[in-house]
């Protein structure tokens, strides 16, 4: 009896707005796959039809990833060749797919990338902010309190910060960034990249908020918000100040609480203040 070879999972990047950004290799892989797992099948069918790719498409989204993922791994084991795509850009980047890739790898299936568009990287490539070290935070929490807490934790970050945001929350998020990171922090707002109304604005957080307040068009579409990190010297000074405050507060408070307050007062990352402790900080 001959044993069938295990298949391969291809993780294929698709355009973030301009359909012509689907690479020839991505087209070839999508064409030869037995099955394409897509976030929104109707949306992806339009792209596939544009390229004349007739393929079987199955829905894989955050609500069914576990169940459908198990079925896909079973088929991969039987030798199927499957492509994973998302609505736009690179799968797994603020998109589903992580569980499937993990399960496929755990099952010994080969997983190969077909790299291509990604809004975060496209925005970084035109922002003119330091790009040698950056932090991708994806979407901030939807709830205002959690969003501010997340920004607070990022206040002392020296790397360029990359955030995704939707049109209905961009003005609110900018206001929170101003409140927590300060009006003068430099930032870039990349909107509708590769599309008709592509706009890349730069300025301070206060200037960007003012641009959006003055022009409703600038609040439409899809956004990547990039925020400059603080200077390394400032980061070191904040850390030193944070450690000093932490040691003072620790005399009166449990360590987790002391680290949280010291971080809020100094702007130093809470984790850095707590790094040498044995137990993890309180949530
Ligand atoms: N996987 C995608 C990628 O590789 O970039 C991201 C998917 S995430 C669900 C969608 C978010 O990405 C949007 O809300 C927006 O923040 C950002 N985004 C996607 N396309 C964009 C574009 N053309 N211009 C600006 N931001 C975009």
N/C terminus separation: 56 Å
Count of all domains: 3
Radius of gyration: 22 Å
The sequence of SSEs as H and E is EHEHEHEHEHEHEHEEHEHHH
CATH class of the largest domain: Alpha Beta
Summarize the amount of helix as a percent range.
40-55%
- Identify the bound ligands: S-adenosylmethionine
Low-pLDDT segments, ≥5 res: none
Q: What percent strand? A: 15-25%
From the spread of the alpha carbons, the general shape counts as globular
Q: The biggest beta sheet, please?
A: 5 strands, parallel
Architecture (CATH level 2) name of the largest domain: 3-Layer(aba) Sandwich
Overall strand count = 10
Average pLDDT reading: 93
Structural class: alpha/beta
Enumerate how many helices there are, as a single number: 11
CATH superfamily of the largest domain: Tetrapyrrole methylase, N-terminal domain
Strand order of the largest sheet: 3-2-4-1-5
* CATH topology value of the largest domain: Cobalt-precorrin-4 Transmethylase, domain 1
